[in-house]
Amino acid sequence: MEESKLKTEIFSMNHELRAEDVSFSYKEGISVIEHLSFSLKRGRLVMLLGPNGNGKSTFLKLLAGRLLPQQGTITLDGTALKEIPDRRRALRIAVMPQSAPPVFNYTVREVVMMGRYARLNRLYPPSPEDDEAVDWAMKQTCIDDLADRSCAALSGGERQRVSLASVFASNTPFLLLDEPVSALDPAHVCMIMERIRQKAKSCGILMITHDLQTAVRYGDEMIFMKRGKIAAQGKAEQVMTEEIMSDVYGCGVEFYTLPDGRKCPAFFSR
Q1: Can you identify the CATH homologous superfamily of domain 12-92+174-268?
Q2: What does the pLDDT look like over 213-240, one tens digit per residue?
Q3: Who's near 60: CB < 8 A, 6+ residues apart?
């Protein structure tokens, strides 16, 4: 079933997930996120990049409402995120974490259906709409032939596609994806990124990745984080410079040209 035919809860047409001057620390005096501002709107696929341990996953958790900032505000359609009940927030924001919790006792279809939990009525079985959303999501991620398999029998890449299908099935205005293709082979990376790119036409997506070629090929915008701050933000041609790449990653960089003419960096030790 085409995504456009899936019913969605009606919110304002100008969906926006916004962080303003946000700071966060796990321990007093050790900042992980510092004075960070960001806006995600529907129709955009934004790539979040940067070295390990520089706050990318923490920022995703803040945007999802799973952590509360010590300073600044995060709003969803103008309402403070902390004031929106968990279940209603889940109708608007779906999150694919870097490491999903074990679900070995469930089938693939059951796990994908978990993405619909905010819409499900615990007193009744899933509705035809829920079933259609799950069928569509499994087809999009090419796991429909695995529907009745136990997740315990899947490879790491297959489980990653199951997690993504669960997020797709949520049918929310915003998706927050933490390295959604890191365990996939090249063919599946291309296929899944095409589906993510297509999905971004109807929602706003923030995606963490370390694959700069993937970011260049598919992203509308790129954000590089360094020590909890935004080091650079803009389109690939604006931020993919030798100066910015060397500063963010702390190593040497050379550029090569992709088949479509865009430039992508290759790194080396100094």
Answers
A1: P-loop containing nucleotide triphosphate hydrolases (3.40.50.300)
A2: 999 999 999 999 999 999 999 999 999 9
A3: 48, 95, 176, 178, 206, 208
